[in-house]
Structures are given as structure tokens and as C-alpha cells.
Amino acid sequence: MIVLKDEDFWDGCLSYDASQQRECLIKCPLDVIVADYNVLSLCCNHLGASAEKYCPRCHASSASFNVLSRQRTPEETRRTISRLHLRSKEVDKAKLRKETGVKEHINCLWDVLDPHRDIPVGMLHLLPLGLTKHLITFLVNQMDKTQLARMSCHLETVLPSKGPDFFRYIESRQGKDFKFYCNISTLTNSDPVAVLPTED
Q1: Distance CA 141, CA 164 (A)
Q2: What is the largest CA-CA distance in the chain?
Q3: What's the pLDDT at 10?
Q4: In sequence order, what DSSP letters do the residues of 54-92 get, joined into one string?
Q5: What pLDDT, on the 0 to 100 scale, is given for residue 80?
Q6: CA atoms within 13 A on the CB side of 140
Q7: Residue ranges of the chain whose pLDDT lies below 70
Q8: Taxonomically, which superkingdom (predicted)?
Q9: Which of 30, 104, 146, 196, by CA, is between 20 and 30 Å from 97?
Q10: CB within 8 A of 189, min separation 6: which ones?
């Protein structure tokens, strides 16, 4: 991906359309890029949820998820990337990555926008993953077979691949499964009776 730094080109770049045999204006507004949270985290040079400071927006950790933490800045991230490049041992690099949450790779977005500021707030700021797992498991264990069938049926309408077995094997689910479920739980938990098939 090439990002044009010259402000004259930000409103479009004059080019040539060979199929139409005429000049054209190419525009790619960065504010309409669609991506999942992992890709957005990558745009911030962030390691992801495995880091101690797991948020790509701020310096929150598992001990301080519910308070407003110091915001990340492009300058600070670039300094950390420079520190990573100075490390000669991979063990030292891995330790610094885990501590800071910064991962070094080429990022063409830094000169155009502030990825830390423009990324949405992550789900883990609202509910820690461990609490989410125990809460959902507790609720599922309190339900009878009819309620679980309704919930599974509703989940299947949203995502067919997860619906049939998601609640059946709830004890063996991983963090990523609970994180996914948190994103759609408002859809699957609202009036599950409405999606049950009715007999004519």
C-alpha cells in the first residue's frame, strides 16, 4: 500500500484508465477502510491481546482495565520501535514487546493519521475476558435444555457455524470465543423465543 504524503494528492491522484482510455481521478479516503479489530490493532503497531498492555489506544493493563489510562501516541510508539530495533537478542525483543504492547513492522499510516486515536475502544475495556468467561459459563449452566436450545437457535441465525455447539461445549471454549460472543450477545440474547420455528 502506498500512502501519498504530498497534501496536493490527498483529494485525489490524476491517473489513466487503460480500459476506458481516458484520464481518471483516484481517491482512497482512509476514514472508510473497513477492518476487524485485529487488523486495526495491527495498524497501530500493536502486539494484540497477548501483551500486558493489551489496548492499542492506551496503556491499560489487566489491573487497570476500568480506569482511564495514559493514551498512546505515535511518537512514543516510534521510540519503542527504535528501542526494539536496537535489541540484538530475540528474547529481549519479545520481553519488550510483551511489556509495552508494541510490535515493530513497517507502517505507512503514521504520516497520514493517528491510528491510536482513531481505533475504536476495545471490548476488553468493558469486560475483562476472565470475568466474561466465568459469567457466561455460569449463566449457561443455570439454563435448562429448552432455554439452551433457544439460545443456540438464535445464535445459529446470526452465525450458522457457531450456533449448534457453542453452548454445548461452553467449558472448553477459548478466550477468543467469548470475545466473539460478547460482540454479538445483544443480538442473540434479545427475545430468543422469536426465532424458534412454529408448527402450522
Answers
A1: 16
A2: 71
A3: 59
A4: --SSB---TTSTTS-PPBP-HHHHHHHHHHHHH--SHHH
A5: 95
A6: 21
A7: 1-10, 28-36, 122-129, 163-164, 187-200
A8: Eukaryota
A9: 30
A10: 151, 154
